[in-house]
Every structure is written in C-alpha cells, then in structure tokens.
Amino acid sequence: MPNAATFSVNGRTYHPPARPIAVICLDGSADEYLDVALARGRMPNLARLSVNGWRGFARAAMPTFTNVNNSSIVTGVPPSVHGIGGNFFYDTTTGQEVMMNSAQYLRVETLFPHAQRAGRKVAVVTAKEKLRDIFASGLISEGGIAFSTEKARSAVLETHGIEDVEALCGPQPEIYSGEASVYVLRAGAALLAAGRADFLYLSTTDYMQHKHAPHEEEVVDFYAAIDAEIGKLLELGAIVGVTADHGMNDKQTAEGVPNVIYLETELEAAFGPGFRVILPITDPYVVHHGALGSFAQVHVPEGADVAAIQHWLLGQKGISECHVRATGARLMELPEDRMGDLVVASGKDVVLGRSTEYHDLKSIAGPLRSHGGRYEEMVPLLFSEPLNAAYAARGRADVRNFDIFEITCNGTHGA
After folding, report:
1. Cβ(247)–Cβ(34) under 8 Å?
2. Which of 4, 79, 198, 294 is close enough to 20 for a disulfide, judged by CB 3.0 to 4.6 Å?
3. Are strands 276-278 and 249-250 parallel, antiparallel or unpaired?
4. ω before 63 within 30° of 0 (cis)?
5. If 0-12 CB within 10 Å is exposed, 13-18 middle and 19+ buried, where does residue 327 land?
6. Residue 24 and residue 244: Cα distance in Å, rounded?
7. Residues 50 and 182 in one domain
8. How far is CA 328 from CA 25, 89, 276, 331, 357, in A?
9. Tell me: the pLDDT tens digits for 83-112?
10. Contact 92, 267 (CB under 8 A)
11. Taking the complete model, does pTM exceed 0.85, yes or no?
12. What angle in degrees, to the nearest 10, is found between the helix axes of 263-271 and 306-314?
C-alpha cells in the first residue's frame, strides 16, 4: 500500500492518500479534442470520469508553451517563481540565446524528491527528452525514476533510475508520432502494475495536435488510444488527474498560408536596425511548429523609445497584447530578469516570427497549428474522483493547471 505521509514544497503541503496517484499532462489538448472524441463515443473511460469524478477548466501559465507549463505543474508555482518563462530566452549577461531545457534554470525544487523522501515511489515519464532533466532534478538520487519516450532505450539506472525500459513498456516509438504519447501512459501503467511506482507524472507531446484539428479521424483515434491507457491506470486503483500545458489553434489564413507577423523585419523597417526578437516556443522539434508561436520577447536597441515602439506594435493588425517588461512580468507572472523590453502576444489565428530567412516553413508537417498566447490559455482539468466542497469551490474559480498535484492529493474524495 502506498505511503500516505505528508510533504511540503514551495509553500504547498501535499497529503497524498494511501492509493496510487497519476497526474497526466496531455500536451496541446484544447478541450475541443476531448469533446469531439467523447461525442463520437471514443473515450469511454474519460466519459465515466467526467460523470463520476470532476471535469472543468484551468488557466495555464503564460506564455502557453511546454517548458513553462510543465515546470509550473511539477513545482506548483508560476514562472515568476520557478524561473522558466519560455523554451528559450536571451541571456543579457552573456549575450547568448539560451534554451531552458535544463534543471539549472529552475529556481525552486520540483515536488518529486520531496514525495520520494516521504515514502512514495515516484516515476516521471515524458515524451520529449528536453523535459527529462527538469523532471529528474533531485529525484534519481532519492531513488526515483525519470525517463522519456524519445530516449527510452538509453535509460540506465545511474541517471534514470531504471534500465531495460523496452522490456517493461515495449519498443521505443518515433518521437514524431501519436505513439510517442500513448507510450508515456502505457509506461506509467506498466510501472504501477509492476510495483515500481505509486506516484506518477506522465507528460505527453503535442505532435498530433499540431498536425490535426479536433475533428480529424487520426486525432480522434489517438485520443481513443490515450483513453484506453487511462482506463488501465483506473483499473490499477489510481486516482487520476488530467490537464494540459496549453491549447492549440489554427494559425493560417483562409487560403491555408501561415499567418505570420515577422516582428524583427517589421520593427527594423519602422524604427531601424538593432532589434532582437526572441521566440520562446523555439525548441528542437521544428516539425511541430517551425518556431512560430503566438508570443515573443522583444529586446529594443539601446536608447530607443520603448513607449513609441509599444504604441506602434499595439496598432498592428494581429497583435493582441504588448506590455513593457515590468507590466508583462506582473500580468503574466514571468521572471522579469529573463524578459525582453517588451512582451508581445498575437491573435487566435496569428503567429509571431523573426524574419522570413529565420524560419524554414518547409519543415512544418501539414497546416500550421500552434500556441503560446492567451487563446491557448484555458485547458481541461479532470479528476477521476469527485472533489470535496472546498476544492470544488476552487475549481469553479480561477484554478490553475499547476494546482493539479495539490488537488489530486488533497481535494478528491479518494484522498
């Protein structure tokens, strides 16, 4: 039976029950994906969960990118506290553009080593290798497990807490596939069934959501496969919490052309050279989005009139928000020292780029669907058990996706 000891981290106290806990982040899962699959009868386990448990919405962290929101979920705090405000940022002290896919950029601990020290058997499985180092921070030395679908066959005891993953979970799939996400949940169920874990975080990839709109049969089949794996976790007695890191929207014109504002090009045409536009969506998975998302950080030339530039940007069609650094940090709960002079967000069907030369749109597999702005901020929030009165009231208010571990541990009737 799992240990029910209490632990605290980053100002939150967790009271996990003597039952397995499985928190799932379905990357890119706008609620429409669940609605379509449910309407077609393809997610029977989620249907039962919605009726017998609890289903609502949560607000994701801004910008609505993977590293930002997964870091918030595993620490229980916003980016202003944990320090990761994008997949990418410009380090003004070194003059380097840096990818934040390492635990060295976290300013607080994750909850996983604390849960492990409290007697839980913690396992973290992620589709993308870029997240594993963040999730594994402090966990492996405590006896926990952390590995990715992308590098499953490379997992070794010393650095991952497990070896022979393929013997337990099956062959490592291709990362640009729906199977890469299904494998994450399959691995979680296998670890739970084998007695290797009882406190799970399972984080998928959004390849399918970038490639397919909610009504397309391929993605409905994908969610049916996800649902089958959720069913296995439920059969094994787990209390399951489900959310997403961000939603997903079409970012193209009616003619099917990517709807891009090339900020660096436009700003230099209007104000002269010296601008540096940072696109925090940038990561190694260019087939997903071509480094085009609905959020950007703008570093302006020294001595430039920031207020005038902000006013000009707010007048451009497709720009929905533009804030100076301090205001953006406050409104979006971002780490101010890792921001540009201006933060910019775009409309539902618009993405922000640097220049036409910077982006290889031929790398995008299919129509451009992406995320990063306010229009991908509201995400699903589901629990396999009803919520108690106090947490149900929170769920009807401004609940955040990074509240999910606290609610799963403290707020369900199974807890």
Report:
1. no
2. 198
3. unpaired
4. yes
5. middle
6. 8
7. yes
8. 26, 15, 18, 5, 28
9. 999 887 878 788 888 788 788 999 999 999
10. no
11. yes
12. 120
